[in-house]
């Protein structure tokens, strides 16, 4: 899950649903949420996200990028966590949900493709074919605007 700004809101419902499933049935797949915002003051739902992360007991990893505090943007976090993301995308065949600004989504998609190309040794056309397949089968979903 990758979001910036107010686009974090749809993921709260998703996480609450997964948490209920976790509590009722036990076990859900590992999750990663990359979230970008300006600074700590604009970090929406920070406390609630922390409580959800604690409740999952290690199944959910949250990474926040504060653009005004030097942590960069979400796409920089994709790049700096490339090994973990490679694991999610290439080995675990994770679904990807990107929600937020068009600029962020385009940059994140390029970073994700770069991570996959590096791991799989693919050419750019092979990576783009993979992305097309993921979008067509709805394993990668985008909710973008602006």
Molecular structure report:
This protein is an alpha/beta fold and 146 residues long. It has one domain (2-144): Rossmann fold (3-Layer(aba) Sandwich), CATH 3.40.50.80. It has helices spanning 9-25, 46-56, 74-80, 82-91, 102-120, 124-136; strands at 2-4, 31-37, 60-66, 96-101, 140-145. Strands 3-2-1-4-5 form a 5-stranded parallel sheet, sandwiched between helices. The relative contact order is 0.16. The model has no long low-confidence stretch (mean pLDDT 92).
Secondary-structure map with pairings?
Elements: E1 2-4, H1 9-25, E2 31-37, H2 46-56, E3 60-66, H3 74-80, H4 82-91, E4 96-101, H5 102-120, H6 124-136, E5 140-145
Parallel strand pairs: 1-2, 1-4, 2-3, 4-5
Helix pairs in contact: 1-2, 3-5, 4-5, 5-6
Shape: globular
pLDDT under 50 segments (min length 5)? none
Please count the beta strands (DSSP E, at least 2 residues each).
5
Oligomerization: single chain
What is the rounded Rg?
15 Å
CATH homologous superfamily assignment: Nucleotide-binding domain of ferredoxin-NADP reductase (FNR) module
CATH class: Alpha Beta
Number of domains: 1
In whole angstroms, how far apart are the ends? 19 Å
- Strand fraction: 15-25%
Tell me which CATH architecture applies here. 3-Layer(aba) Sandwich
> What is the chain-wise order of helices and strands?
EHEHEHHEHHE
- Secondary structure category: alpha/beta
Query: What fold name stands as the CATH topology?
Result: Rossmann fold
The helicity comes to 40-55%
Largest sheet: 5 strands, parallel
Count up the helices. Answer: 6
Strand order of the largest sheet: 3-2-1-4-5
What value does the average pLDDT take? 92
